[in-house]
Amino acid sequence: MLRRWIDVLASAGGLVLLSPLLVGVALAVRWQDGGPIFYRATRVGKDGRPFRLYKFRTMVLNADRLGPAVTTSGDPRITPVGRWLRRTKLDELPQLFNVLVGDMSLVGPRPEDPRYVALYNPEQREVLRVRPGITSAASFAYRCEEQMLVGADWETVYREQVMPAKLALDRDYLVRRTVFSDVWLMVQTVLFLGR
Q: Would you call 107 helix, strand, or coil by DSSP?
């Protein structure tokens, strides 16, 4: 219950405090090519329930029809504004709305695409017992994940190496998770963004 109160207060406060930045980013995305401001993706949340995840759009129009669901290193579908948003992680800010409405938490395993969740074994599915988060132990450890996904076999690398390693990190974190560890992970995430 305490985590949910922290989520609600922090996400509502963040949306209000960051509203000038959110408006500026929205205008930059719209100005770039006149397309939609937000990217809405179906992701799997707590208890395996699908939900709509919001991000600022960082790719060309219809990018989902032009390539894979996972972004690889040097992906040509990423726009110039999108490249900057991804580098600074500002594209993730609309997920504060997902946190506010209860689809997500500030800290929790990153929500995954349904087609990859279908590959989880029973142990890996344990991460679905909690709300997914904007940041997690795995997303912090793999913050440069795109650089690992290169070459023709990038999806095999993701499915067989990256995804299992991330799920193991998140499962381990959940076993020892405390409110203090969540706060510390959020602080580390924000400090990393400043670099």
A: strand
Q: Are 43 and 53 spatial neighbours (Cβ–Cβ below 8 Å)?
A: yes
Distance CA 61, CA 26 (A): 15
11 vs 98: CA distance, rounded Å: 9
133: left (phi over 0), alpha (psi -120 to 50) or beta: beta
For residue 112, the 8-state DSSP code is B
Q: Give me the residue spans of the domains in the chain.
A: 2-193
Read off the pLDDT of residues 135-176 as tens digits, 9 standing for 90 and up. Answer: 999 988 887 777 777 777 878 888 899 999 999 999 999 999
Partners of 59 in beta bridges: 78
Written as one letter, the residue type at 75 is: D
Instruction: State pLDDT tens for residues 23-60.
Output: 999 999 999 888 999 999 999 999 999 999 999 999 88
Q: What is the pTM of this model?
A: 0.87
**Helices marked H in the chain — which ranges?**
2-17, 19-33, 63-66, 80-88, 95-101, 114-117, 137-141, 154-157, 163-176, 179-193
3-state secondary structure at position 54: strand
